[in-house]
Structures are given as C-alpha cells and as structure tokens.
Amino acid sequence: MAKKAPRKKLPKEVAIINADNCTGCESCLEVCPVDCIVKIEQYPTMGGLQSWCEIDLDRCVGCEVCVHIPQKKTNPYELTVCPWDAIEMVPTEKCHEVVSQIGGPPEYIHEHWDRLVGTAFHLAELKANG
Ligand code: SF4
Ligand code: SF4
Questions:
Q1: CB of residue 17 inside a 6 A radius of ligand 2
Q2: Distance CA 35, CA 47 (A)
Q3: What SS3 string covers the chain?
Q4: Counting Cβ atoms within 10 Å, is residue 15 exposed (0-12), middle (13-18) or buried (19+)?
Q5: 24, pLDDT greater than 50
Q6: In this predicted structure, what is the pLDDT of residue 48?
Q7: Domains, the chain
Q8: Does the C-beta of 32 come closer than 6 Å to ligand 1?
Q9: Average pLDDT, the chain
C-alpha cells in the first residue's frame, strides 16, 4: 500500500458509520470523494451481521458528502445518502470514543482495536493538541 502523506489540516468532524444500522449497501462508498469508505464483508465470526462499511478516519476529510448530497442553499430539502441513517459526523476530538462504541460488532472492534480505535485516538489527540 502507498504510504499516506501527512494531512495539512485536520477536519473538525469526521464521519463514523454505526455498523449496527449499516446494511453494506455501498451508497456512501460511491459518493466519498477521497474513497475512504471500505466494505467489510461476511466477517467469519459475526453472527447475523453479514456486511457493513467502515471509514478510514486517517483519510476522511469531514466533507459530509456521505451524509447529505451538497446542493444549492436555496433548496429546502435535504438529500440524505444513507437509507438507514447509519452515518454520523462526530467531532474529531471524540472520534475514538464513538468508533469504540459503534464502529463495528464488539468482537470485531476488539480484534481490530489498534487499527480502528488506535487510529481514531491518534487523530483525536492531534486535533486536541491543535
Ligand atoms: S465525510 Fe467526506 S471524506 Fe469523510 S467518509 Fe464522508 S464523504 Fe468521505
Ligand atoms: S449508505 Fe448507509 S447502509 Fe449503505 S453502506 Fe453506507 S452506511 Fe451502510
């Protein structure tokens, strides 16, 4: 994998998917401009949950495009992307707390703790330290 370049500016908020609500429909994945949403498919030990999506927080730029489609300010209607309301924008300083709670089935989070929660914690710390 190519080495990630350090980011110039940390986003105020990042997107986090509530794995419990996500069906893996890929609608969000198709609209993300930086291609940082990935689908986790049929993880072997996860009972009923067949697939869900997760966001690489190291690359999320907080643009909210996966939550609602940008449109003219004069348009009063919001066009949301996720049919299951599974994506939320979370303050970057708190992203590790939210990822650890809803970012995947508990066993999955536990198994991938460093990559998921560790990455989010590092990002949160960077943001908190300005
Ligand atoms: S907020 Fe923007 S960059 Fe982040 S996952 Fe959503 S669409 Fe991608
Ligand atoms: S649009 Fe919603 S349900 Fe579909 S993959 Fe994205 S988070 Fe999951």
A1: yes
A2: 28
A3: CCCCCCCCCCCCEEEEECCCCCCCCCHHHHHCCCCCEEEEECCCCCCCCCEEEEECCCCCCCCCCCCECCCCCCCCCCCECCCCCCEEEEEHHHHHHHHHHHCCCHHHHHHCHHHHHHHHHHHHHHHHCC
A4: buried
A5: yes
A6: 57
A7: 13-128 (3.30.70.20)
A8: yes
A9: 89
